[in-house]
Amino acid sequence: MSNAFAALQWATMKLFEGVSRHKGKVLISLVITTLAMSLLLVAFTLSLTAYNSVKGVSVAQEMTIFTNQGVSSERAANLKETIEKQPGITRVRLVSPDEALGLIGDTDNTDLSFSTNPLPNILLATVSTDIPEKQVDETAKFIEKQPGVDSVAYDSTWNSNIQALKNAFAKFGLLTGDLLCGLILMVLLGSASLAATTPLKEALRLNSMGAPTSFIVRPDAWRAGFVFLLASLASIVIADLAISSIAPALSTALGLYHLPVTFQPLPLSWQVAFIVVSFLLGNILGGLTSYLGYRGKI
Questions:
Q1: Which helix (H) or strand (E) holds 197?
Q2: Measured between alpha carbons, how far is 187 from 168 in angstroms, rounded to an integer?
Q3: 182 and 23 Cβ atoms separated by less than 8 Å
Q4: Residues facing residue 93 across a β-bridge
Q5: pLDDT (tens digit, 9 = 90+) per residue, 23-38?
Q6: Which value, in Å, is the radius of gyration of the alpha carbons in the chain?
Q7: Which segments within 33-174 are labelled E, that is strand?
Q8: N or C terminus: which one in the chain shows less Cβ crowding within 10 Å?
């Protein structure tokens, strides 16, 4: 039997020996780790789903260009092509007088009947959120000077307000995410220390015999990895159940604001990756806490 195989066999034996002798500490470690991981998974899943759903909702501003009364559809179409070529304009839609009148009637739930339609051709120009206010104003002024244009209605501060809102949410999300991850990491570190059950005397004895650090801390590292592995499996089940129970209420609430969000559990590949990372993290934290526990005593 090779020395490497004997070392692995010894570490495996010590792993389960520690679990058997310290059932209470290991169970507490498992519960704490499961709760911490469940909280992280639920928060991440909800955030990821909401982001993927909301990011597709257009927040770009629109310029409403009113043409002069009597401008022909052909002239309006030519004007549409001119506007589409301007900086920051991503899309232009031509709304005919009849269509505009129909939209007003649908909005007000009234039957609008005129002998002659009083509305002109209207152009709706979508403005990119990436261009500054100054460029928006310059584009609007250019459009207003075009023959056949009566007026242009828009909010020049829209892009700046959207950008400020994005920056605020990004900073808030980064701050709260960092704090949450830091808190959970500290909880996991404390949980890993509970799983590190190798007696100090045994660690010191092995050290005095010339055993390397990796050999001494291996049982504790593996034990913490084993606990984290079980906790990751349990937390995935708990997170899926939690998401399934609160998803309908959240989807209904967001639907009131016309945000069609459907919350789903993480994909299987992501769950597998989470399990693998949890196992490796448990090994690292378990070995670290074990080493810190006896290194100052030598």
A1: none
A2: 28
A3: no
A4: 124
A5: 888 888 889 999 999 9
A6: 32
A7: 61-67, 89-95, 122-127, 149-153
A8: N
Selection from 239, 234, 221, 193 nearest residue 284 by Cα: 221
pLDDT over 90 at 18, yes or no: no
- Residue 296 to residue 172: CA distance in whole angstroms: 40
How do strand 89-95 and strand 122-127 relate by DSSP bridges?
Answer: antiparallel
pLDDT digits (tens, 9 = 90+) for 29-82: 889 999 999 988 988 888 777 776 666 555 667 888 888 887 888 888 888 888
Question: Starting at the edge strand that comes first in sequence, how are the strands of the sheet with 61-67 ordered?
Answer: 89-95, 122-127, 61-67, 149-153
What span, in angstroms and rounded, lies between the C-alpha atoms of 275 and 245?
A: 23
Dihedral over Cα of 208, 211, 213, 215: its sign: negative
Cα distances from 176 to residues 124, 183, 208, 225, 276, in angstroms, run 39, 10, 46, 27, 25
Is the backbone of residue 88 left (phi > 0), alpha (psi -120 to 50) or beta?
left
1: pLDDT confidence band, cut at 50, 70 and 90?
A: very low
Name the pTM for this structure: 0.61
Between 208 and 223, the higher pLDDT residue: 223
Rounded Cα distance between 15 and 221, Å, is 9
Rounded percentage of the chain residues whose pLDDT exceeds 90: 11
Give every CB contact of residue 162 below 8 A, 6+ residues apart in sequence: 59, 61, 129
CB under 8 Å, gap of 24 or more: what pairs does 3-11 form?
7/215, 7/218, 10/219, 11/215, 11/218, 11/219, 11/222
| Separation between Cα atoms, residue 250 and residue 239, nearest integer Å | 15
**What does each C-alpha distance from 143 to 12, 59, 65, 151, 155 come to in angstroms?**
76, 22, 8, 9, 15
